[in-house]
Amino acid sequence: xxxxxxxxxxxxxxxxxxxxxxxxxxxxxxxxxxxxxxxxxxxxxxxxxxxxxxxxxxxxxxxxxxxxxxxxxxxxxxxxxxxxxxxxxxxxxxxxxxxxxxxxxxxxxxxxxxxxxxxxxxxxxxxxxxxxxxxxxxxxxxxxxxxxxxxxxxxxxxxxxxxxxxxxxxxxxxxxxxxxxxxxxxxxxxxxxxxxxxxxxxxxxxxxxxxxxxxxxxxxxxxxxxxxxxxxxxxxxxxxxxxxxxxxxxxxxxxxxxxxxxxxxxxx
Length: 268
Ligand SMILES: Cc1cc2nc3c(=O)[nH]c(=O)nc-3n(C[C@H](O)[C@H](O)[C@H](O)COP(=O)(O)OP(=O)(O)OC[C@H]3O[C@@H](n4cnc5c(N)ncnc54)[C@H](O)[C@@H]3O)c2cc1C
Description:
By secondary structure, the chain is α/β, with parallel strands linked by helices. 21% of the residues lie in helices and 32% in strands.
């Protein structure tokens, strides 16, 4: 049974990741919620503004990190929450990024804010990198100013093959240019010993999943996080229905084999 009453959490720290994206570190006022796991999300309620689902982007002792892009009323209120503000939090909700099998190669592919839900998985893998084969993190953004978690990238690069690409490069940009699937084409992995994790806009996940399937990765080894708009987060309202599934109740993390038909759009 999920807790449905928001618990007050205080904004202990906030960091601007880019012009419209902020990472909030939240600490509980009293008893914390149950521990979150990579891939799960919380319903965040900036008092008086409304409530939205936001994935956990950092899981540390006593601290819950969320990275929010301001796209509307509630996300904007969260991005403007100052240190010391109180926010209502309920959760944890949703399915998790399952840990890859020991020894397998790992391919993590994100588009834009989609890197945020993958960050706790990356942190987990960094802590046990010896247990896996080659770990690749491929992240696409619209432009260099939107790159997330800049201060962490050197550590990621030390232990993984982390590469970035942007749609619109600017002078001085040293990463790639173009869709994140172009990075995937240059990425080495063993298709039959590989676990893939994707999060970003649905067209990006479709294109990436197709490229992985074409390289021989089985559909059930490709995990995607579907961030369909939702309201209750407990399977009651039906707002996030996708074919026979409710994203809040059955997801947001799914095997590609389970959602491919419902996400497929006719080829032009
Ligand atoms: C499981 C889950 C995890 C999420 N994790 C994150 C996260 O880590 N960081 C983050 O910034 N956002 C995340 N989101 C998206 C976030 O919930 C939406 O941006 C938010 O609900 C928008 O609410 P709003 O009131 O700010 O804007 P609204 O005024 O409700 O919407 C503004 C615009 O954004 C569109 N929109 C709203 N929700 C979504 C959505 N889910 N997907 C695509 N377009 C949408 C609307 O159609 C509208 O065009 C997640 C969503 C889900 C379902």
